[in-house]
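Service request form, structural biology core

Requester: graduate student, group of Dr. S.
Request type: structure prediction, single chain
Budget code: on file
Notes: please return the result as structure tokens.

Sequence provided:
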Amino acid sequence: MGKKNRPSPSSSTPKLMETKGFSLMNDDLLQNLLSRLPASSFASAAGVSKAWNAACTRILSRPKLSSAISLNHSPPVALEEVFDKVMSEPIRPHFAIASVGPGFDLKHVLRFMIEKLGTRTPIILSSVSGIIGRDALTHEFREVKWTSDNIDDEVSTNTGIVLTVGFVPGLKVDAIPLLQQRKAPQGSMIDKFVMDIKSYTSSVSGCTSPLAIIMIGDADVDQKPIIEKLDYAMAMETIIVGDERGQFVYRSAKESKNISGNLKCSPDAVALVFARDRDKAHGVGDIEFHFALSNGVSAIGPRLKASSVRVSESVTCLTARREGQQEILDGQQLLDDINNEMENHMEIVDLYIGVNRRRNCSVGSDRPKLMTSLALHGVVGTGDYFQFYHSDPKTALSSCRDVSSSLRNLKLGWDSKSCLSTSAVVNAIDKKEAFGGFIVSCVGRGELFFGDPNVDSSPFLENFPGVPVAGIFCGGEIGRGCTSLTAHGNKEVGSAHCLLHVYSTVYLVMSYTPPAEH
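Core staff response, request fulfilled:
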């Protein structure tokens, strides 16, 4: 019997599949299908062909933040829930920030994140006092603290987690640590930390100051000299926010910055640095960062000048003059004045001494520069000006409203600039808009402080509904920004340059402006 001729599978089959397969779809249909893929499948699809890669690039033509929280009692389940939610849509991870309750093992979570996101994605993971964000399952927005007086039994196990993954075309991002060697002086290592940030920024952007820094400091290390050096070295436009007293682990995109077991050093702080990419692709717009601050303390009594300070063991003897007066008051008289001022306050308050500090600051061989700032955890020295402050929910609420008003004006400014565009028609996708944000709030604030839920998040939620935002409650808020959005709610605090805050909420808003059409 004669043999039947069978078609050769060598070349005709692939061509048949190519002509009758996915390539028959038009661009709109292909893009629609790819936009529905989760992040991992989307990454694989981008490598199928040039046409698919181009479609994936069009889908992710704008920056994107994806965030979620989980309050599941099981840490492994909570971790899976936030990752499933955050990575359920197309995104190319340029950075990741996660914050967890004390029920999590930081090193285990970091290994999980590296496995999911890859070794080249910079990651910062910290243990915090509470989390802020939208629930991965219920989509409800929550502010949750782990404190023992939490009225929500649901989170008593301290196993909450908030995760944010960001895609920021036009920027370069990396985690840069302050590695403290055992025998090296802290000052020299701080200088190296600052110069590492400037060097990285210069290598990717051509300038030495980044757009923004999100920083986590070790709770056992004094962060004041670190923040002061950064304040000195960075341009006023560089925004710095974060947690002064954290516990953290990290992963840098640069392997030499990661800690291995044989290194005789430990991280005192880590900075997630956002710098412009001088080699950004054509057709990519501009990302900007906007800073706002809600203050939660009020001044008590007059401004004072220290006449003498004597420290003996754990006791400090202080005398001072009221500003503009010659009478010297001893410590007991100062305390009596505070008690008299506070006698009409029924609530329990926390007291702070705010000291106007003047110091010479430099990095490396730079010429020292005189810097002035307000330290609310300040140590008073002879000749220093200082004032007492107390936590105040009324001031905090008023300040939150001021921030909300400032953000509203910011949006109106964006809209008005779009209306003044030279184009005849301005599409919604062509105007400047917020695409994400971060909130850092004092653990002393929250529902018990204000009497209502989600007050700290309200300025962002009211003005940018539907825009991803995540945040934390912590024990020391880092906030440095030169902007009209700052709403102190108190002239005395607002008159001084403050870097490390108390009873405050710090807001970082990220916006995107599409490229101008020519």
